[in-house]
Design a protein that fits this description.
This protein has 275 residues and is mostly beta strands. It is built from 2 helices and 13 strands; from the N terminus they run αββββββββββαβββ.
Length: 275
């Protein structure tokens, strides 16, 4: 009976030795990490390829709505989860699920000119306009990794698929500096809306994972370029249709598509090496 116990114990030790040796060899070939990251950054919308629409009231008055008709900036923040597989320690493949919110903001001057009997009057005002959208994205990134003593330095590139869940626009008249508010066109414009649009980005990133045993602190500098933001102004914004029976030649609302041209983020989090 004792011999059977000895044999069983010896067999167990032998199997454990093979298993441990196999895991050690696998660790040199394949590593797996799960983690969470969050942070924020900046938004950039490029200038359109043409100018904003001009309205003429037929009495010598003209008005050009300035909605997002030049370069615009904003900010964003995000939180997400990711999984990273590393092969032979030098090549990585990361896939994630990220939730983010984006803001594009502009402070603009409104200008309305009217000429009556050869006399030109200029009316001015200021407003703050904002487009906000939020959604979930699936970033996929191929990485080149440089292992260091207490860290992993990496550079990555890949696509990111952004699914916008909702978007909204806001038009806020901040100051009124006109002498004749009754005829100023900003009195007629009431609402700035936003149309929800999905986007595909080319993303690239530089990161470092600070190692503390199996736990890591990832720090990432990430950038994304959108392939879906049109350059034509009239593909970015639509003004409401003015009825032919209307006494006003100016729109009362406009709809801006959600989306940016480029974004940048700084993300920090924690992760755990499973293998």
């Amino acid at each position: 009976m004792r011999r059977h116990y000895v044999r069983a114990f010896a067999t167990t030790i032998l199997l454990l030795s093979f298993t441990t040796d196999g895991l050690a060899q696998a660790d040199d070939v394949f590593d797996l990490t799960f983690g969470v990251r969050g942070g924020g950054g900046a938004e950039y919308l490029s200038a359109p390829s043409n100018h904003s629409k001009s309205f003429n009231d037929g009495t010598g008055g003209s008005f050009e709505p300035p909605f997002f008709d030049a370069e615009r900036t904003g900010y964003n923040y995000a939180l997400g989860f990711f999984a990273e597989a590393r092969f032979f320690k030098y090549v990585g493949l990361e896939i994630g699920l990220e939730f983010s919110r984006h803001f594009l903001i502009e402070d603009v001057d409104w200008k309305y000119e009217q000429t009556i009997n050869g006399n030109t009057s200029v009316f001015k005002a200021k407003s703050r306009n904002e487009v906000t959208w939020a959604g979930a994205s699936i970033p996929i990134m191929v990485k080149g990794i440089l292992p260091l003593n207490e860290a992993r330095l990496w550079l990555g590139i890949g696509p990111e698929f952004y699914l916008t869940q909702w978007s909204t626009g806001d038009f806020d008249l901040k100051t009124d500096v006109t002498d004749h508010p009754a005829v100023a066109p900003h009195r007629q414009f009431k609402q700035l809306r936003s149309k929800t649009e999905h986007a595909t980005y080319l993303t690239w990133a530089l990161g470092v994972d600070v190692l503390a045993g199996n736990f890591n602190i990832p720090i990432v500098f990430k950038f994304g370029y959108s392939f879906d933001t049109p350059s034509d102004y009239y593909d970015r914004i639509k003004f409401d249709t003015i009825p032919t029976t209307s006494t006003s030649a100016y729109p009362t609302s406009a709809t801006v598509r959600s989306g940016d041209s480029l974004y940048g983020q700084v993300l920090v989090g924690f992760s755990f090496d499973v293998l």
